[in-house]
Amino acid sequence: MRIVFRAGPGRFVANGLWHQGLVANADGNSLNLHEPGVVRLFLDEAMDAVAPALSRGGTEIDGWPLFDVLVSR
After folding, report:
1. Alpha carbons 18 and 58: distance in angstroms, whole number
2. How far apart are CA 10 and CA 5, in angstroms?
3. Are the CB atoms for 32 and 21 separated by under 8 Å?
């Protein structure tokens, strides 16, 4: 499984202005993807959504909906 974060309106991905691994939104929420606990949270949230696709050899999913769930906790 590959969780992907693409920059877009209100969505920011580290590009040299912040430390590598940072994803943030316009509301001031951010997560450091280099922290093992953060990665584990993303994996736990993603497993239910992508389990069927993984049996077919993997998948790429948009990480932003997962980000929204995690920062709302």
Report:
1. 30
2. 12
3. yes
Per-residue CA distances from 40 to 17, 18, 27, 33, 35 (Å): 25, 22, 23, 10, 9
Distance CA 71, CA 73 (A): 5
0.70 surpassed by pTM: yes
How high does pLDDT run on average in the chain?
84
Name the token pair of 68: 């929204």
Amino acid present at 67 = F
Tokens in use for 48? Answer: 């239910």
Assign 5 a pLDDT band (cuts: 50, 70, 90).
very high
Closest by alpha carbon to 68, among 18, 17, 27?
27
The string of pLDDT tens digits covering residues 36-61 is 899 889 888 888 666 665 666 667 88
